[in-house]
Amino acid sequence: MVFSPMSPLIQDQPFTRTRDNTTKYEGHRDIDEGTLELATGSDNDSRGWVPKPLRKSFTKVSQRLPTGWRLGTSGAALLTFLILVANISITAVCYSKIRSQGYNSSIAPISTGGCGSIKKLGVGIHLVINIISTLLLGASSYCMQSISAPTRADTDKAHAKGSWVDIGIPSFRNLRFIQRRRLFVWVCLGLTSIPLHLVYNSTFFVSTNNNMYQIYYADESFAHGAPFNETFFRDKRGDYSVVDPWKIQDQLLHTEIYQNLTNDECIESYAKTLIEDRGTLILVVDRPDNCSIFRDPNIHTFHYEDCGNTSATSLYDMTVYSVGILPAKEPYVSNWYYWICSQEDGYRRDGGDPAYNKPPAELCSDGAWKKQLGADPWLVSGGRVKYCLSETVSNQCHLNVAVNLLWVVVAFNAAKLVITIVVAASSLINQNPLVTTGDAAASFIESPDPRTRGMCLYSAREIIATRTGKNAKDQPGPVARAYHPQQQRWSAAVSRRRWILASAL
Q: What are the Cα distances from residue 227, in Å, to 178, 224, 289, 418?
């Protein structure tokens, strides 16, 4: 925004007609400093919102308060201080909580529960964080605008060079006219804002469980308590962190935590990188002639020997699904939920070495699992699947805090507080800056600028054109012009370039 002082029009001022039939005034009378008064109304009007018993005390207190830009920067310093106290308190509480829970890491959960409630809590915390960071940014921006606001001396210097300054808005342009120490403080305020907004939203985050699960190949009689080869599974329990088949069978008989799924429901429930609400899976298959059919070289199953007489056991084999949610680095490639397609869990890409096993044309995790939907039969590691029994587990989420990042926020918040106090209390700004257009109007009414005399009706665009055009030096001086009222939209107060920039941000 460019401000041009408006010369006051006096009622007894003579007007004449020009050749182009427009009206212009011949001159104006300067207003003495003592004749300019601010209409504030009566005492009751100015303090009407203050209860009568408190008005005298309010007047004494208000007279001691700073005014103008110092009041604004003092308020910014107070707000920054209150936010710093809140940040220190939150950091101390979070640090104490994770230590009391036995965590030695700087990142740890502070609350665990159902994903619905934890996610709502996370949204609420981030809403508060964004409100606080917006207030902090507003306080910092006001101080930056006050520092970069030109003084009357800066304005006169710019006018003497045939240039202009921006008044009433944050401006990079003004930085070329202000003192170096003010420029240094302005840069420090800006630099302390960047890490705050990059780090603040990362201090709290929600995580969810990704369940490992075991896949059992069983006859449908297993769910009704039919016996199985206990020796085979008892010998292997120590090799894996698996759920005992005895416990699974007991849960099938006495609880309702296992859900019966069709083949397609089973595939869609487990063809995910994140398994949050399901656990152990039992594939109910046709009884095989022997367990050797499960020795598919593509699947790393549990057994090292035959399960015995299949007619005498209701449990044939098992495997453990434990592929992480992140893909491995080249040349290795992970294949999630590979068992659905009877593929391997991972492959070494062909690097010119014949020992590298090439992946199939389409991995299960790349979409090959969809081809199993509606498949008849659906074969998994050689077994023909009838239906699935899936363990339902509670969907647990965690609200985590990164205490180390909270300390970073506290550090930059403290630095910002020191800078705002310097701006508000020191003589850094030793002259009254023209922070608002009202400040500029008061200054130019008190001391008119001869360089802009007669330009009271010029728009910012016209002033810039006369100062920056190719033939700027040959431009004639300001010509008095008539005022023609016309309807304007509020949006016209901002240039098109600024509208585009603000919309892009």
A: 88, 9, 17, 75
